[in-house]
Write a structure and sequence with these properties.
single chain; 379 residues; alpha+beta; Butyryl-Coa Dehydrogenase, subunit A, domain 1; Butyryl-CoA Dehydrogenase, subunit A, domain 2; Butyryl-CoA Dehydrogenase, subunit A, domain 3; four-stranded antiparallel β-sheet
Length: 379
């Protein structure tokens, strides 16, 4: 398929089609966790759903979709399987990140279509040497979610200068290390990659500063937005879905449960309170995330929004963690069986909330500095 054909057939603005993926993800949820990566049928459904193309530029056949649509789609999948939703979000946001490569790199990667699945390990790691025409990379990069089924992996590293840069490396040039044995999000396949003196040409690399600033005016909204406005959305959207799934599962069980004293669990004020509070926490988190997505899709994000978005992502993760903790406790022993969806959501949500981007303490300072500086200027 030619690039011109992409421009004709792309469905700009469309959301990923999650119906098929949700069904397959739900059916394979236990197997996904046991195998510590997405099974082949889940990967196939994930590719068909259109997550990889969602933030890819239209000129390469991508959707150039909205962050609100991405939030909704990832959360829907997360209700069935948080690991699948995590991979869906990662593949989508990497389309946004890769779009900053030079023209030659974009042609090499998307010249045949916008649906390649990418992995990423973007925190600086490994060793970089600058050479004629590019760089040479060696070392180990951890936590590359979905790397087993990815055709390329985006790696972060400190280049000479020093300069924080990203490097796009094809599957044939690295070795995957089977290193992912996490207690939560166990099916994300977030294994490590190992490179041994691999040459990366200049057209497959770009500075991290370009990503953080967003693209120039005239580009699609999903590319113009500064990255801090959307980065945390990638990791908290699956958590929203997992928490909603846990609430649904808990309510279904407690609606028919008989307690030790012979009474109906649904009539127990403690059960009613737990479900109501968990529901309110989940709704509150969703409202925060919807506002952040709307800002990212808009045109008027300023200093306040850039300071507030990371705070809201982290606080939403805390709310969702509190909700699933509550549901796990009220479920009793039945929620603790290894195949129960509530305990799986409990592990997935708490592990996701530990991601560096969702740590409230690490983002509080930026928001409070903005707040206090603004107040100081007003008095």
């Amino acid at each position: 398929m030619t690039v011109a054909a992409h421009a004709v057939t792309t469905d700009a603005g469309a959301a990923p089609d999650t119906a098929g993926l949700r069904a397959v993800a739900a059916r394979c949820a236990e197997r996904t966790e046991q195998e510590r990566r997405l099974p082949a049928e889940v990967v196939e459904a994930l590719g068909a759903a259109g997550f990889a193309r969602h933030l890819v530029p239209a000129r390469w056949g991508g959707t150039e979709g909205s962050f609100r649509a991405l939030l909704d789609a990832v959360a829907e999948v997360g209700e069935s399987c948080a690991s699948t939703a995590w991979n869906a979000a990662v593949h989508a946001i990497l389309g946004r990140m890769v779009s900053h490569l030079p023209e030659q790199g974009l042609r090499e990667i998307w010249g045949e279509g916008p649906d390649e699945l990418f992995a990423g390990s973007i925190a600086p790691a490994g060793e970089v040497t600058e050479v004629d025409g590019g760089h040479r990379l060696s070392g180990r990069w951890p936590f590359a979610s979905g790397v087993d089924h990815a055709s390329w992996t985006l790696l972060g590293a400190m280049a000479p200068g020093p300069e924080y840069r990203f490097f796009m490396v094809p599957r044939a040039h690295y070795r995957i290390l089977d290193s992912w044995t996490n207690v939560g999000l166990g099916g994300t396949g977030s294994n490590s990659v190992l490179l041994d003196d691999v040459f990366v040409p200049g057209h497959l690399s770009y500075p991290q500063a370009a990503l953080m600033a967003g693209a120039a005016a005239g580009q699609a909204a999903c590319r113009r937005v500064p990255f801090k406005l959307v980065n945390g959305l990638t990791f908290v959207a699956p958590v929203l879905g997992a928490a909603r799934g846990a609430l649904r599962s808990s309510a279904a069980r407690l609606a028919v449960k008989t307690e030790i004293n012979g009474g109906a669990a649904r009539a127990n004020p403690a059960v009613q309170t737990a479900l109501a509070r968990a529901g309110a926490e989940i709704d509150a988190a969703q409202l925060l995330l919807e506002r952040a997505a709307a800002v990212a899709d808009g045109e008027a994000a300023g200093a306040l929004e850039r300071a507030r978005a990371p705070r809201d992502f982290a606080f939403a993760a805390e709310l969702l963690g509190a909700a699933v903790d509550r549901l796990f406790r009220i479920g009793g022993a039945r929620s603790q069986t290894t195949s129960d969806p509530v305990q799986r959501a409990w592990r997935d949500v708490n592990c996701a909330a530990g991601h560096a981007v969702l740590q409230f303490g690490s983002v509080a300072g930026v928001f409070t500095t903005h707040l206090m500086d603004g107040v100081h200027q007003d008095v």
